[in-house]
Design brief:
Layout: H1 2-5, E1 22-29, E2 32-38, H2 48-62, E3 67-72, H3 79-89, E4 95-100, H4 108-119, E5 126-129, H5 138-148, H6 166-181, E6 191-199, E7 205-213, H7 216-223, H8 228-245, E8 249-257, H9 261-264, E9 269-270
Parallel strand pairs: 1-9, 3-4, 4-5, 7-8
Antiparallel strand pairs: 1-2, 6-7
Helix pairs in contact: 6-8
């Protein structure tokens, strides 16, 4: 979605299940306006927190005019993949298959095998081989979406790229750096909340955020020896926020223990 919209709206990490809420991106070109919903990934789980993520994904699919099923071309499809395809195919909506990260697949016959596997399991309106990282194939996908989307009035102003409030984008960008900086499964136990977001007289932004963890052990890890880990996360997040806002960012991070945050958290649809 970031590549299609032209700016960073949704966070990106190498870890699976990074996205937690439905994020809206808006692309306006010429007379056309496309509205994208980036939703959590679809996977099988018995955990309540993860189930809420999957439910948010399915809800986003039911509310869309076109479904783009994006799959990592480097990975072999599984029974879980097949079950997901069966469900989206039953919705009766136009389906686009988007195989991403093709630039990282050295064995090109593997791509043909991937395409053949997906063709055998659903009737796709179109199939795209793309690299969101390099942009290869994305323009073709965009052109098809422009011509396939149903006609309607614009829903957003021409210069609007997302309806996500900046305080929430800032929280997501800091959470992204937690994912990139912390070890193993720890990022999945972390949440970030923006407690204050103020614009100073000089145009810079002052942001106070709480990094939420579930216990004291996690708090110690997030802070790091001499506060170094939290400092690193803050420095990297500050740079990313400054890129998005176009303003100098003064970021203040605090770590708080909230054992039940996962039980009380609900995915939000920003749309």
């Amino acid at each position: 979605m970031n590549r299609l919209v032209g700016t960073k709206i949704s966070i990106v990490t190498p870890k699976a299940q990074t996205t937690r809420s439905r994020i809206t991106g808006v692309l306006t070109e010429g007379e056309a306006q496309l509205i994208f919903h980036d939703v959590p990934g679809i996977f099988e789980t018995n955990k309540a927190f993860e189930k809420s993520l999957v439910n948010a994904a399915w809800q986003g699919a039911t509310q869309s005019d076109i479904i783009m099923f994006m799959f990592d071309a480097r990975k072999k499809p599984s029974d879980e993949t097949e079950h997901a395809i069966e469900k989206i195919a039953s919705m009766g909506k136009p389906l686009l298959l988007v195989l991403n990260k093709v630039d990282s697949v050295e064995n090109k016959p593997t791509l043909l095998e991937r395409v053949a596997w997906f063709k055998d399991r659903a009737t796709w309106n179109d199939i795209f081989l793309i690299s969101a990282k390099t942009g290869d194939g994305v323009d073709g996908l965009k052109r098809v979406l422009m011509t396939s989307a149903p006609a309607s009035e614009w829903q957003y102003p021409e210069d609007m790229l997302t309806d996500l409030p900046m305080r929430l984008i800032a929280a997501e960008l800091t959470r992204e750096q937690c994912f990139l900086s912390l070890q193993e499964e720890l990022p999945y136990t972390v949440n970030v909340e923006t407690e204050r977001y103020d614009t100073r007289d000089d145009g810079s932004v002052e942001i106070h955020q709480a990094v939420i963890v579930q216990n004291e052990r996690q708090k110690i890890i997030v802070i790091g020896k001499g506060g170094q880990m939290l400092k690193t996360i803050g420095e990297r997040a500050r740079k990313e926020i400054a890129k998005v806002t176009g303003a100098t960012c003064h970021l203040y991070l605090f770590v708080k223990v909230r054992a039940d945050w996962k039980e009380k958290w609900q995915p939000t649809a920003y749309s």
